[in-house]
Fold this protein.
Amino acid sequence: QSSHLFAFLASATAASPSSTTRTHATLATAAFSSPAFHPRRRSSCSPNQQLHQKKMVHQNPSFLISRRENNLTRQQMSFFGDSAEPGFKRINRAAMTEIIEDVANSSREESGYVIIDVRGHDEVQYTGKLDDVVETLPLPYIAQGAFAMEDEDFEETFGFTKPAMDETLVFTCKAGIRSYQSAQLAQMAGYSDILEYQGGANEWFS
């Protein structure tokens, strides 16, 4: 399934980072909700329940969208299956503040942290950065294999030094969904010291 993921996100992404929009999470949700990714999945609803749901969707199309949004808020959407115990630590606003201050008062090299915002460039431009020490690397580029790029190519493409394997990656996004997915992808790329800020920009700027 991971190969389907990369192909899907690659097709959904434009050639330049500036074209990345906040629709990526929605697109990914739709893709992983499709029967193509779940060929053996069967409905657990009774015939009467299915008929009722079909009528609700026909009469009110927003009914289906609302149900999907509720499901997404109840559990973190994962590219590779839901995991109650991810192989990385999830942090709150207080911890994120401490990390940002640590990097700002010293340096990336001294602190050992690389803070990465995986929102689109347009989203970051709209709200501003969480802090000047936060780098921007939209999720689709991570999904396309950004962490597998050569160091020079990575820096030339994204404008900052590629994270070393012994650095701690700290991911943030809008609301903790894309950062969670990015942490999973970083694990697949070989990184082992990973933190993920759950609250994201929604909490940070509230």
Notes: The chain has eleven helices and five strands.
